[in-house]
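Quick illustration, no need to memorize.
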Amino acid sequence: MHNLISFLGADHKVGTTMITQSIAETIAGSCPDLKILFLAMNGRDSVDYFREAPIGIDSLKFHIDNRMINGDEFLKTCAHRGNHYMLAGITNEREARYFHPAMAGYILEEVAPEFDLIFADCGNDLDNGLAIGTLVVSGESYLISTQQESSLRRFIKNKALMRDVRIEISGYLINKYQEQDPYGFGYLSGRMEVNKEQLWKISASGFSRQAEQEYRTLLEYRNEEYKTDITALANRI
């Protein structure tokens, strides 16, 4: 699906939801003629940065199971601010096992014609049906890591699995990036076995904890480096 852009975290807490939502907000704000959808396709609701949580995808399960998803009705279901539409993920995490890859493919196929761009937060769990079903049909997929050793190790450990399930990565985002860190682009390129040109930095912010407390994205704080990096990625997309 050429208009579906997915984001996959290499590990927990690498900033997958924040980056996905920030990109969706940036493009929606700068391109008012485009219809943008943010949706969480993972085992969580992923509403940490919404002041008012959108409805969750599990509320649509009856319609998904019975192949009753309709584009017009879906637009009415989603929360939206102007041209920016939002659908949360699974509100009851114990229900995640009942969502399979084919369900993700079905709902995306039905709603994709309604939007110019869809941004999917696929979390970090490769054993999640919604995430896998989304990643394998995405026009582009970005993997998000940090300069932390734990994130790199988990990425390297899962590379073979991503290959096996046919996840193709378009670019690698190094979030919370710090120039003085010894794990610079040269080291990361060699360690991850990717070209430097595929690496993008998203600068570290001092407002991460405050953003969680106040249900806001980092775009709403005085953090020009973060905004510049997000804008550069948004322009590329």
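The first strand starts at residue 4 and ends at 9.
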